[in-house]
Amino acid sequence: MEGDLTVLGQQIRARVEQWVGIPSCVGIGPSKTLAKFCNHLAKRHAKLAGVLDWDSLTPERQAKALASEPVSEVWGIGRKLSVQLADMGICTALDLARAEPALIRRRFGVVVERVLRELQGVSCLTLEDVAPVRQQLVRSRSFGERVTAREDLLAAIAHHTAQAATDLRTQGSVAGLIGVQLHTHRFREQDPQYHACDWHALPVPCSDTLTLTRAAIALLNRLYRPGYAYKKTGVTLAALEVGPARQIDWLSPDTSPNTAALMNTLDAINQRYGRGTLKLAVEEMGQRWQMRRERVSPCYTTRFDQLPRVGWAGCDLLDAASMQTVRLHTTGDRAECLLLL
Question: Where does the signal peptide begin and end (predicted)?
């Protein structure tokens, strides 16, 4: 790319800040791993002003930057790998960049060798303009509190199934296999433990929320055991197929042409009015499974009803961008201007 990439990075940061309101950092490098490493450094060092271009550094400064971070901070090197690398004397990112590629490949395989070569500036991992179609969809959440009632589990399973089915239709796939998992709190050893998982093969692969939910509920009924306090449940869709070419069972009611039209209508309504606007009634059978959200951040940029409210002279004024200014200047021209707005 031509031009000053640091300036380009600053422009990207400013646009994200203006359009989304979220502070960000930009890392630029000849490889994906180095770009992520630069992003990490830009977050840690205020003098970089949120942007770092690897090629703008001299070789001496590049070596110093790599030596300043432990090898565990390199993208793709986890906790266990960093311990094994430390046993070989590789403790920093610079140590890994200067290691012998053949030795690393023999000890850890081609994946870690690629990380090493990426640190040396050789691009081995391509950037994906379009995310590849997923081969498996998993939707799972831990509960905000432990759940014992079957109704709460039914609501959670139905919710996860509906979300997975929506993602399935979004990528143009159908599922031939559905699985349900059920877990108690594994870290409360004083409580009775129960962990179960079961699968059901669909006679006809589909992405129909109704069909998938019926199958998921049947699995839950087989797995559910009273007397346990459950902490987590999840749904997995597997054996995914892409495209219209598939074996059709004309005796199955799931092949009705009205099914696709119904799902298209469901997706269109939820896309226009918000996810969850139209859903199955079973999702409302219980709410104790919901995650804790007491400290969730307000949706300042997407929800008008969650904009900060500033009270003045007996009326409410909405001004998210200048809330602090309003509080400091509630008299004079500023207040009169707000009243006019």
Answer: none
